[in-house]
Amino acid sequence: MSGIQWNDGAPIYRQLKERVIAMMLDGVLKPGDALPSVRQVAAEYQLNPITVSRAYQELADEALVEKRRGLGMYVTEEASKKLLTNERERFLKEEWPLVLERIARLGLSMEDLLKPAFGGGAA
After folding, report:
1. Integer Cα distance of 37 and 43 in angstroms
2. How confident is the model at residue 5 (pLDDT cuts 50, 70, 90)?
3. d(CA 73, CA 92)
4. How many other C-beta atoms are found inside a 10 Å radius of the C-beta of residue 120?
5. Of the candidates 60, 54, 68, 62, which has an alpha carbon nearest to the alpha carbon of residue 82?
6. CA R_g for the chain
7. pTM of the full predicted structure?
8. Which stretches of 28-108 are assigned E, i.e. beta strand?
């Protein structure tokens, strides 16, 4: 989780949770992997341990991680599949309509959109 930059736009526990989710989606954290301990994350990023615990608890509530008594938190086997499904759904509902609107506003054709992907010049 190195290089985290916190912003004032969202609570830190939510930003931490999103960072862990990104690491799962990117394959940095795989099913069965242990999350760093609450104490370790709190010390490394100078956070209140309660903040880290809240982020981890939300991940557990969503069944993305599981608590193993005395061992810590581990990424569940279903986490990546569940996240991919949720992220795809969120993209299609929230982001894609904005992309389509911008494409229409700019008057771009399918040909315009495919040019850069197939060796066309940079815009």
Report:
1. 10
2. confident
3. 31
4. 11
5. 62
6. 19
7. 0.72
8. 65-68, 72-75
